[in-house]
Amino acid sequence: MKELKDLKLMDNTKLKDLSKDKLKEEIIKSEKNLFILRMKKQTGELKQTHLMKHLRRYIARLKTLSI
Q1: Would you say 49 and 40 are in contact if contact means Cβ atoms under 8 Å apart?
Q2: Looking at residue 12, what is its pLDDT?
Q3: C-alpha pair distances (Å), 35 with each of 32, 40, 52, 57
Q4: Which of 9, 15, 23, 52 could form a disulfide with 66 if both were Cys (CB 3.0 to 4.6 A apart)?
Q5: What is the DSSP string of the chain?
Q6: Cβ 23 vs Cβ 65: under 8 Å
Q7: Fold for domain 4-65?
Q8: So where are the chain's domains?
Q9: Using CA atoms, how far apart are residues 21 and 14, in angstroms rounded to an integer?
Q10: Distance separating alpha carbons of residues 67 and 63, to the nearest angstrom
Q11: Confidence (pLDDT) at 61
């Protein structure tokens, strides 16, 4: 993952159209990606730490919509 577009985050309009099951799948996928980014940061492989911020906020958006 070198750039923000590599994370493949969906727009809010697309997220609102997803079913609850699809939202849960997207949350799980995003949390796995966040874990990978955290491990890369700890090992010094991740140079763009701003990707973690974007992914955390994306997960928060997903969790808000899934309520």
Answers
A1: no
A2: 86
A3: 5, 9, 9, 14
A4: 23
A5: --SGGGG-PPPHHHHHTS-HHHHHHHHHHHHHHHHHHHHHHHHT----THHHHHHHHHHHHHHHHT-
A6: yes
A7: Helix Hairpins (1.10.287)
A8: 4-65
A9: 14
A10: 7
A11: 93
Structural tokens at position 8: 């493949």
Distance (Å, whole) CA 56 – CA 58:
5
Provide the residue type at 36 as one letter: I
Counting beta carbons within 10 angstroms of the beta carbon of residue 52, is it exposed (0 to 12), middle (13 to 18) or buried (19 or more)?
middle
Q: Are 49 and 41 in contact (CB under 8 A)?
A: yes
| Residue given tokens 């992914």 in the structure block | 55
Residues listed for the chain: 67
In contact, 63 and 55? CB cutoff 8 Å? no
> pLDDT (tens digit, 9 = 90+) per residue, 1-52?
667 777 888 888 888 898 999 999 999 999 999 999 999 999 999 999 999 9
